[in-house]
Structure formats: C-alpha cells, structure tokens
C-alpha cells in the first residue's frame, strides 16, 4: 500500500471509517469455546469517551482448563509435519492481508497508534507469519543427519516442547502478539496466549483470524486478563513448557522467579526494556541526526522498547543540533491517530501520562528543559503527552526506562568517547544503539565495545525489519534469541538425538533413512 497515493488514501479512509463503526468484543477462548467473565469497557485513548468495545476477563479456572486441553493436544501437534504447520501460518498471513483495515482500525482505536504505525504493524505481523513458516520448513521439516562411527546412524530432530505461554505487550498489540504465537506454533508447541490487558480487543481479533486460518482450536487458547492474576497463574502451572514474554524488565524478573519455583526447568524467552542511546560525534551530518533522533525518540509517542532515550552529543556539534532539533519539533503534528498527517498520537492511558509527568517533574528540578512541544485545547480530552527534551549530565540520573516521548541529551568531550561507551554499558541494558559519525574507526570502536543487541549507524534506531534486522537485546534488555531472526524458532523447541545401531541383528538401517 502506497500511502502517498491519493486514491489509496481515499479507499483506506473509507474502509477504516467502516471498520471503526463497530463495537468490538473479546472474550476468553478455550478449545474454541467462548467463555464469559468480568466485563471491562475499553475507551479510545485519543478521547477517553469513545467506548470501542468490551473485554471479558478470563476466570482463573479457565487456566486449568486451557492447560489440560493444550497438554493433551501437544503430542499430535508436535508430530505434525513442519510444512503443514507452515502452510497454516501462510494462510494466516493471507487472512491478515485481507483483513488489514479491520486490524488497523483496532490498533488505532484501542492502541492509540497512528495510521502509519498501524499499517506497518499489520505488515510486521504478516512478515512474522511468512518468515517463521519458511524457518519452520528449513529447520524442522527434515532432521539433521550427523556423522558417527561405522555401523551407527545419528539423527537430530527439533521438536515442540509442549505448552508455551505467550505474554505480550500493548505497544505492538498485533505484531508482537502474533509474532510470539506463530513462532511457538511453528516450532510445534500448543499456545496459551495472554494479551496485554489494555489491548485485548486487537488480540482477540488476531486469535479469531488464526483459528479461521486453520490453527486447531485445541492448540491455541486465549486468556485475556490481568498480568498479576491470570498471567501469574499461567506461569505457576506445572504443565508449562516455556514462556515467551515481551514487556518490562521487572515483570520478566518476576516471571523468572516464579518459574524457578517448583519442579520445573523451562525456558523464558524475554524481550524487555532499554535505556537506548545514540552517540553523535562532530563529523555527523546534522540534518540526518535531527531527522533520525526525532523519529527514534518520538515516533509511536516514544512507546517502543527500541525508542531513543538518550542522545549523546559531542560538545562541538551540540549547540547546532539542539537548535535544529528544537525547530524540527515545532513541525511535529500531534493529534488524532486516525489522520494521515498525524506524526504522534496519544500515549496508551492516563496512568501512563501521569507516570511521564512525574518523571518530567523530577527533570524540571534537576535538569535543563531544552524543548517542549505545544499541545492545544483539543488534546485535553485524550491521553496526549507533549514530546520534550531535557539536558542532563549523567546517564545514571535516569533510574529506569521512561516509556514515552521524553528525550534526554548529554554532552561529551571529544576525548571522552570511551567513558560514554562505559556509561552505556554500565546502565545494564543492551537493546538498541545509534551511532552518527563519518569516521569508520569511531563506528568500529563503538560497535565493538558496546553490549547492545541492535546497533544502527547513521540512521534511526526503530523499526527493525523481520528477517533483515533480527531484534532483541542483552543484559537487562532480554534473554534473546532475536525475534524475526534465524535462531528464534529453535529456542521454542527441544533437540532430540536418535542413534541407531544399523548392524544389529534385524538391522534398523531404514529407520532413520
Ligand atoms: C518493542 O517496542 O517492544 O524495532 C519492540 C522496532 C520494533 C520492535 C519494538 N520492530 O521498533
């Protein structure tokens, strides 16, 4: 879809307008049965008054039911051929394409994401389906034959582990939710999906499309609810075979602790927060820096774990960059996410606004405010938060990840680059990093010495592309492996080696052929 094309814009507006007329519902689904539960109304974060649908929260008893059905379904699903599972994922991708505007409408109205973000997000979900389908065929369809001594044959097989619990965030309510589930399914696992409470309408629709694509009802279950209730009960269950989690570092820690209790030893695949920095030296191109810093810090209202939080500017170039940055921020269009011209929509909730305000109050007393974008009266009714920039002195003034459109700037002297690198590493996070420089030796030094999962040189630091830029961090930013990368599915599987003595009486040479 080319959004610059007028004709396409008109068709999209029409389709979105129709999709937005509806009131949506999401309910727990176990074995295809739609369950009831406590009802919660979802309001549009762009105005806080538009009731966009109802979510029925899963009862705790649904957890046991989902586990027992998924557990029974697991052996058959794991023994299906990988290409059969891949074909279902490809059918799901086709359905997502067909239902693109319905998905976008939910992402915009429930998640407050802009039209451009919503379209990119649907594309990303489709990419995950197609990419993991290819990876499943490549790594799971045919066992690897390994060398051995004469008279023996060895075969390595990748097999689904059992029941995976997928717990997803609200900031990519369709793409990350879909990506986790389809990876676990492609690797041969059954799935119980727990969406973010704030974006369960998006998630419920995704599950209905996956079922429609042919994912068996006993293989994929859906339990909307609170993390500290349903989420905790799910990860406490003895039948769990693994967890895929994207969200905050503190929740990942909590999940780890719960998993460590009891008899189980199961993997946690966690993608968590970041304290992402961009280092700009005096050889950088100012126009490019400003464009990339703005996109990285403020796109999606800064609500990406990949977003830029701290801009390190070499002293010589700092005044010019800050003047240009401030001017460029005057051009940002903050407003209704449904409009084509909107750059920045609301943040997810008024609670998120409040937390950001608290951070800015602290910054107002201990840092220098460089810029704050202006909001108008029309923003008052939604959870809009004005993008802003503060100059601070040290990275450790930021105690934790600030999940919104707040950018921090730190100046450094030319001879302090190694100290900058050391400080970034000392934050403990290691997700994304930006470098703006035209000096190869500087780029090489930084990329070799920083512990970051994804480094971007002379460009923005968001929007990792499935298959090209596998995404995920290290340290406090996550366990890896990288989503959308060639090693992701393997982590959802267990490896089994079968060795056969082919010279034994009765010879079993055919067994592994
Ligand atoms: C997240 O915000 O949780 O690179 C992940 C990006 C996205 C991933 C963000 N593909 O911005």
TrEMBL record:
Catalytic-site annotation from UniProt: 271, 305
Domain of life from the UniProt record: Bacteria
Any coiled-coil regions, as ranges: 79-106
Domain called Aldehyde dehydrogenase: residue spans: 40-496
Family that this chain belongs to: In the N-terminal section; belongs to the proline dehydrogenase family.
Role: Oxidizes proline to glutamate for use as a carbon and nitrogen source.
The protein, known as: Bifunctional protein PutA
Native source species: Nitrosomonas nitrosa
């Amino acid at each position: 879809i080319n959004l610059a094309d007028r004709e396409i814009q008109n068709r999209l507006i029409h389709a979105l307008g129709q999709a937005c007329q509806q009131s949506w519902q999401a309910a727990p689904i176990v074995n295809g049965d739609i369950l009831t539960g406590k009802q919660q109304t979802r309001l549009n974060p762009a105005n806080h008054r538009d009731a966009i649908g109802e979510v029925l929260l899963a009862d705790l008893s649904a957890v046991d039911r989902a586990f027992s059905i998924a557990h029974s379904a697991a052996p058959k699903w794991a023994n299906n051929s990988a290409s059969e599972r891949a074909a279902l994922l490809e059918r799901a991708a086709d359905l997502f394409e067909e239902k693109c505007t319905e998905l976008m409408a939910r992402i915009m109205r429930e998640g407050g994401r802009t039209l451009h973000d919503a379209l990119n997000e649907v594309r990303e979900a489709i990419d995950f389906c197609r990419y993991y389908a290819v990876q499943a065929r490549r790594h799971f369809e045919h066992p690897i034959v390994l060398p051995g001594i004469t008279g023996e044959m060895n075969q390595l097989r990748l097999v689904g582990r059992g029941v995976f619990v997928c717990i997803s965030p609200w900031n990519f309510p369709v793409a990350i939710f879909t990506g986790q589930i389809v990876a676990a399914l492609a690797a041969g696992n059954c799935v119980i999906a727990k969406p973010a409470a704030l974006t369960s309408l998006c998630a419920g629709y995704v599950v209905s499309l996956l079922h429609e694509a042919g994912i068996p009802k006993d293989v994929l279950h859906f339990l909307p609810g609170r993390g500290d209730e349903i989420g905790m009960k799910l990860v406490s269950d003895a039948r769990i075979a693994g967890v895929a989690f994207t969200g905050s570092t503190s929740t990942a820690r909590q999940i780890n602790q719960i998993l460590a209790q009891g008899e189980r030893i199961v993997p946690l695949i966690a993608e968590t927060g970041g304290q992402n920095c961009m280092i700009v030296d005096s050889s950088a191109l100012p126009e490019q820096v400003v464009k990339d810093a703005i996109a990285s810090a403020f796109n999606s209202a800064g609500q990406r774990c990949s977003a830029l939080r701290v801009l390190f500017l070499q002293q010589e170039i700092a005044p010019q960059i800050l003047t240009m940055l401030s001017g460029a921020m005057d051009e940002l269009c903050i407003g209704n996410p449904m409009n084509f011209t909107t750059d920045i929509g609301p943040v997810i909730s008024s609670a998120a606004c409040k937390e950001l305000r608290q951070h800015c109050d602290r910054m107002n007393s201990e840092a220098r405010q460089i810029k704050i974008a202006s909001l108008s009266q029309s923003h008052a009714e939604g959870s809009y938060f004005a993008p802003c920039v503060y100059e601070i002195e040290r990275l450790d003034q930021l105690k934790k990840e600030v999940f919104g459109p707040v950018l921090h700037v730190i100046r450094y002297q030319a001879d302090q680059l190694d100290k900058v690198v050391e400080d970034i590493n000392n934050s403990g996070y290691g997700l994304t990093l930006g470098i703006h420089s035209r000096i190869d030796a500087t780029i090489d030094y930084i990329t070799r010495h920083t512990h970051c999962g994804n480094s971007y040189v002379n460009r923005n630091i968001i929007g990792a592309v499935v298959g090209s830029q596998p995404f995920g961090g290290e340290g406090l930013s996550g366990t890896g492996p990288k989503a959308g990368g060639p090693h992701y599915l393997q982590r959802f599987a267990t490896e089994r080696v079968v060795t056969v003595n082919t010279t034994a009486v009765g010879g079993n040479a055919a067994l592994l052929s």
